[in-house]
Write a structure and sequence with these properties.
globular, Immunoglobulin-like, eight-stranded mixed sheet, C8orf32 fold, Jelly Rolls, 40% strand, 3 domains
Length: 646
């Protein structure tokens, strides 16, 4: 692709040079910006991007053609929390031995000291590079002498041989942006798909036609002013899905006198290419060294599901995930020897072992929740960052991901629950919904006894299934039992007599934890009256959805179920004066339900609280109902039991 570009471009005698100018001059800092202590349009801002300017263009010499991206950034640091903006990173694409390069990197910090501007220039020692994933390295740098009140500034140019990789442009960040401007200089035979995202439209957009030699250039120009900070909200997928941003994707190239070159392609072509790839399809059908182990693991097993289970368990127990999300593999022999690899390494080894024992399977490309959702109308491979395996037994599909030690077979990690995946297959290619096959379920059962002084003694049992069980197991094994219990009790005033755990290693069973405890002065004494909240644990004390309106969907990932059952023995000589009234709250279309009831039998109170979220995704129009649902749960669970001395 690069050589084809180069020959054609040089023949056309092209030269797109940067003809634009940054709206600010490096090192010239207005006094009002240096003196700023609060941003007038957002008093809560920890920092503000004063100017973010970028331009992308192609330059051609007799020997090479380069895609250039120039950027100039200036940021005001307002509070201690804003200091993190002094750490910056430039993503650099690489393939084989070729990598994008950074030129003319310059960075400075400006402080007002004794009424004078003092500049601190960044040294070369502050610049370093690290791997982000298979195709992206990050060139990172840290600006010097940054403190509250500083203005920081940096500028750089990225030079790339990958002419199709025109950079996208983001207008909105976690801090407000006063001025954002981007120029994209596209030759008229580069046909791009351009799509805006987010809820903040650019202030202005224009296209200027420019002529050079025997071709035309379209100069696309976007400006956004006074962009508000992007506010992250609970239960979002990737913030990158919702920030204001222009996305650019090269669709095809139509050089004069030459056949059209398709760049974006189709999902079908991607499917065919992956099946023939040495790092994907052929890595599965090859890798003959896995055959002996696959046969050994499944020796004597005839049932297909039991075969799959045996292979899955072997891979899950013997290979450790290194935390890298990926879709291609390198040296699988080395992965097996090291017993450690990427998500692609582990799941493609799993698939290859299934292939060696003649179990039918397909691979599924997905985008994890932190990577963003997939736009199916744009067939671009870079929308995926993860691969899992799928096996069909009878009429049931099993999604397999062996990266997590504490999830049973058929239950995907929560990071994978993000819409649909693309099935890569000779016979079953297409899209498939990636649904959660488990809930996040916690069942709490307590036996409690209250004395006349308000002291509460008893035992509480937690039983967790699905994603709640996974989180508990992972946390337990990471910390060890002693530290786990210590952290568990950190927000509780319990005096623990005994703690027990069951099934912490048996991932196909529910995990249980039991604590025997005493809480001094749990009930509030007021003369002859005791006020008692029935929730010793598991109470929803505040609404996680604080904003009155929401612009983004609420994505829980999976259904949720929280049950709290309690039996409370009241002290001799006291009678129940007041109990919270029963309540049932139901969301539209039964997408959520809350049931609350307290009954009395003799000197025992029976408390039942069940909260169910029956679907994972709530769109914006459903948000007011969901928010009010939680408001009412918070209010109900805050109500007190009133006991009066006879």
């Amino acid at each position: 692709m690069k050589s084809t570009f180069l020959v054609t471009l040089v023949c056309l005698s092209m030269n797109f040079a940067s003809a634009q100018k940054s709206p600010i001059k490096y090192g010239v800092i207005p006094l009002e910006d240096l003196k700023m202590v609060v941003y007038d349009k957002d008093s809560s801002a920890s920092a503000v991007i004063l100017t973010d300017y970028g331009e992308a263009y192609i330059s051609v010499t007799s020997a090479s053609a380069k895609l250039n991206f120039e950027r100039h950034v200036r940021i005001k640091i307002l509070t201690k929390d804003g200091l993190e903006w002094a750490n910056a990173a430039i993503p650099l694409y690489h393939a084989n031995s070729s990598e994008e390069k950074v030129y003319r990197l310059r960075a400075s910090t400006y402080n007002l000291e004794n009424g004078k501007l003092v500049e601190s220039e960044m040294s070369k020692d502050a610049v370093f590079k690290e791997k982000f994933n298979r195709y992206i390295n990050l060139q990172k740098f840290t600006l010097p002498n940054v403190k509250e009140g500083s203005v920081i500034e940096y500028t750089y140019t990225v030079s790339s041989d990958y002419l199709a990789n025109f950079p996208n442009w983001q207008f909105q960040y976690e801090i407000p942006v006063r001025w954002s401007e981007y120029w994209g200089m596209f030759p008229d035979f580069f046909i791009f798909e351009k799509y805006m995202q987010g809820y903040i439209a650019p202030t202005s957009y224009e296209v200027k036609n420019k002529t050079a030699a025997n071709f035309n250039t379209q100069a696309h120009h976007w400006i956004s002013k006074d962009v508000p900070a992007f506010k992250s909200e609970p239960f979002m997928t990737s913030e990158d899905d919702y920030v204001s941003k222009i996305n650019l994707a090269l669709s095809h190239i139509n050089f004069p006198g030459q056949p059209v070159q398709e760049i974006m392609g189709t999902w079908s072509k991607l499917n065919s290419r992956l099946l023939e790839s040495e790092s994907f399809g052929k890595a599965i059908t090859g890798s003959g060294f896995l055959k002996k182990k696959a046969e050994e693991v499944t020796s004597g097993i005839t049932d297909p599901l039991q075969k799959v289970t045996a292979i899955f368990n072997y891979v899950q127990k013997n290979l450790e995930w290194d935390g890298t999300k990926d879709t291609y593999v390198d040296n699988l022999k080395k992965v097996v020897e090291d017993k450690k690899g990427t998500a692609a390494d582990i799941n493609i080894i799993l698939a290859s072992m299934l292939e060696k024992i003649d179990v039918a399977f397909d691979m599924v490309l997905i985008s994890t929740r932190d990577h963003g959702f997939i736009r199916q109308q744009y067939p671009m491979e870079k929308q995926f960052n993860y691969v899992i395996c799928m096996v069909k037994i009878g009429d049931k599909n099993f999604f397999l991901d062996a990266t997590e030690k504490y999830l049973p077979m058929g239950i995907l990690p929560e990071r994978c629950l993000n819409g649909e995946g693309l099935v890569i297959s000779k016979n079953n290619h297409g899209w498939i919904a990636i649904d959660a096959k488990a809930k996040a379920r916690t069942h709490i059962n307590s036996e409690l006894s209250l004395n006349e002084n308000g002291e509460l003694k008893g035992k509480v049992n937690y039983t967790c299934d699905g994603y709640d069980a996974f989180r508990l197991r992972a946390d337990y094994h990471k910390k060890g039992e002693a530290d786990f219990v210590k952290e568990f009790l950190a927000d509780k005033n319990w005096e623990i007599a005994k703690s027990e755990f069951q099934h912490v290693n048996e991932i196909d069973q529910t995990i249980k934890q039991t604590h025997e405890f005493t809480i001094n002065e749990y009930g509030t004494l007021a003369g002859n009256v005791i006020y008692l909240n029935p929730f010793v644990t598991g109470q929803t004390k505040e609404n996680i959805f604080k904003l009155p309106t929401r612009e983004y969907p609420v994505d829980f990932g999976s259904a949720i179920e929280k049950t709290y059952l309690s039996r409370i023995a009241i002290p001799e000589g006291f009678t129940v004066d007041e109990l919270p009234k029963p309540r049932v709250i139901i969301l539209p279309n039964n997408s959520g339900k809350y049931t609350y009831n307290i009954t009395q039998m003799g000197n025992q109170l029976n408390v039942v609280s069940i909260m169910q979220i029956n679907k994972s995704l709530f769109i914006q129009d459903e948000y007011p109902y969901l928010r009010e649902f939680y408001n009412q749960i918070v209010a109900k669970q805050a109500e007190q039991i009133v006991l009066k001395k006879k």
